[in-house]
Amino acid sequence: MTNTMTVSRFISTAALNAARGQSTALDPQDRIDKSVDELASARAHLARVGNNLNQIAFALNAGGYPDPVGLDNAITAVRDAVSKVEACAAAVVAA
């Protein structure tokens, strides 16, 4: 799910802002709203990754044999991604 501004909305917003003598940049609240939407989307994707890791754990508990290096790399990447999303979310909330 992406929540991008349509071209027509951008043009109409920019035209109205220009006519009012205002900045044509996105309103700060719009930028925050878009950031929150993007973070929500990232969290949803991370939840799917977590689901896949649970499936891997299930397979391993059923007697499968993991590639330890690959599994460690995947877990590290997920932890890093979660940390970055959380840091971004905190920055958006603090703004």
Strand tally = 0
Question: What portion of residues belong to β-strands?
Answer: under 5%
Task: Give the C-alpha Rg.
Answer: 20 Å
Largest sheet: none
**Number of individual domains:** 1
Residue stretches low in confidence (pLDDT < 50, at least 5 long) are none
**Helix/strand/pairing class, anyone?**
mainly alpha
Summed up, the helix count is 3
Mass-distribution shape: elongated
Q: Helix amount, in percent? A: over 70%
Strand/helix succession: HHH
What is the CA–CA distance across the termini?
A: 24 Å
Give the mean pLDDT.
76
Q: What is shown here, in short?
A:
The chain is mostly helical and 95 residues long.
Features:
single chain, 95 residues, mainly alpha, 3 helices
Structural notes for this entry:
By secondary structure, this protein is an all-alpha fold. It has one domain. About 80% of the residues lie in helices and about 0% in strands. It has helices spanning about 5-20, 30-60, 70-95. The radius of gyration is 20 Å and the shape is elongated. It starts with 6 loop residues before the first helix and ends with a helix. The mean pLDDT is about 75.
How are the SSEs placed, and which strands pair?
Blueprint: H1 7-19, H2 28-61, H3 68-94
